[in-house]
Design a protein that fits this description.
By secondary structure, the chain is mainly alpha-helical. It has helices at about 1-30, 40-55, 60-100, 105. Helix 1 (about 1-30) packs antiparallel against helix 2 (about 40-55). It is elongated and about 70 Å long. The N and C termini lie far apart (about 70 Å).
Length: about 120
């Protein structure tokens, strides 16, 4: 019975850590002003998840999150400044294709008719 209760405790502790980490992700995303905060928060979330997968649990979650968030803030936002224009160009191209009616031509290679 003691083993069962200990297993339940470990499971609930793990679930609470995940909930807390996702709450930290949301708070730090808002802290960065959403646009500048989402990528550093996500990178930090994955970095902490990687630590957990590797078996490193000996750190305070909020302190580690804050430390890693500060470390990756500028680097990850530089990345989004490079990637965002490419996404915008692809989106504008898609809008142009749909507006011109050329979207139907995309279906041809897949064996669909134009009708």
């Amino acid at each position: 019975m003691k083993q069962f209760i200990q297993s339940i405790y470990q499971l609930t502790n793990w679930i609470m850590s995940l909930v807390y980490m996702n709450l930290l992700w949301a708070v730090f995303t808002l802290l960065g002003g959403v646009v500048l905060g989402i990528l550093p928060s996500t990178v930090t979330l994955y970095a902490i998840s990687k630590k957990w997968i590797q078996g490193d649990y000996n750190f305070k979650l909020h302190q580690e999150f804050w430390k890693h968030y500060k470390y990756v803030f500028l680097t990850s936002n530089k990345l989004i400044l490079i990637v965002l224009p490419l996404i915008l160009i692809a989106f504008i191209n898609l809008l142009f294709i749909v507006e011109q009616g050329a979207f139907q031509l995309v279906h041809l290679p897949f064996g669909e008719s134009l009708s």
